[in-house]
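Before the break, one more example. Copy the sequence into your notebook; we will annotate it together after we see the structure.
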Amino acid sequence: MKKDLLAEVLSKHVFVTVGCTDPVAIALAASRAYQEVPGRVRSVTVTMDRNIYKDAFSVGIPGVLESGMDLAVALGILYGEPEKGLRLLERVEPSHLAPAREFLKKCPIRFKVAENVKGIYVLAEVETDAGSARALLRHAHDGLVEVTRNGERVFSLPEEAGPGGDGLLEEIGSLTLEEMAGLVAEAPLESLLFLKEGVRMNREAARAGESSPLGLGLGRRLAELRESGLLCDDIENDVRQKVAAAADARMSGLNVPIYGIFGSGNHGITFFLTIGTVAEHLGSTDEELVRALALGLLVVGLIKSNTGILTPHCGCSVAAGAGAAAAIVRLYGGTVNEMEAAVHLLLADITGMLCDGAKFGCSLKMATSSGVAFQSALLAMKGASVPEKNGLVGRTLAETMRNLRVITDPGMAGVDRAVLEILTGGEDQGDC
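Here is what the structure looks like once it is written out:
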């Protein structure tokens, strides 16, 4: 077992982003390509996998509180700072909206769906009066693997050397829960303490969502319901409220930084705020909190090794929720068997939750997932478990993961196509 595996996970799959990672990835590719041929833009074509297309379609763009993949491209080209990676749009502000709209009137942008690709794929092709350039992202939202200018390669990495393409997920997928617990217990405390910042930063996003009428406004409304006594003022509803409020802020396009995990800011919101809020109520020490977070991250990695980074089902439920459930058991001092039971309980409950794109409504699913994660942990600590062969739950966690892999693909392989048809009104996305 690789002893530095946990350190690699923390380095490669915990990150800070501003804005939803899917339109930001589109903006990043377009911005990086334009950087090679600055000038008057004649045309832009962006080709992407179905999941990126689905998740970028309706979500707010950071800084302008409006949505649209074309707007993401325009802002990326006009104002993006590609050297900042997923934070390239952090300086975008409402005054940039009018120039971006004017840009879109003059520059045709075409979006296409790439068939027969596995994992994240975003290819931006930009033509200007200075020439043409292409930038390709693979396997991760910031996974730049190739840049060309006028047909000549100016930057390249083997796809397996880029973020998410290095076999790290497969390595996580080979671990048992007991081995994960061992890695976490042995990790130097100082290497984990930065994870507290994920709780703090995402909590700031929740405060922003609670104080302004953003997105669906779910966080604010849940707070009002708690204050009125119509909802209990308990740990579970506190968790759900904070997660929903942060999602409201992020999905609306408010320019707030988020600690994300495994390619997703919403995963990070669900994960850090669920675990962090429970730890706050329990009075957990910093060490108890960060070791629980580290364990949860490995569980999320285990799920992702079987489903992929982007999925037809809601990753905030299936992945981030499962990791949070196991982490909460650890916070309560539970055993590895109880952690496994908590993961099984959650998967048996909400695996079928559909991902129909990133949007305001994500706050509903994220709040549900955080509540179920907390509930599953408590039920597991009370001795509840799902018997094998009750649906996708197997005799062991490894068997359940194999079943989840089949459910994801081929089981739900047609879901993303159906969702795209609904979002686009059946229009052709220019498959290639």
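Residues 275 and 404 are 24 Å apart (CA to CA). DSSP finds 17 helices and ten strands in the chain. Try to locate both features in your own notes.
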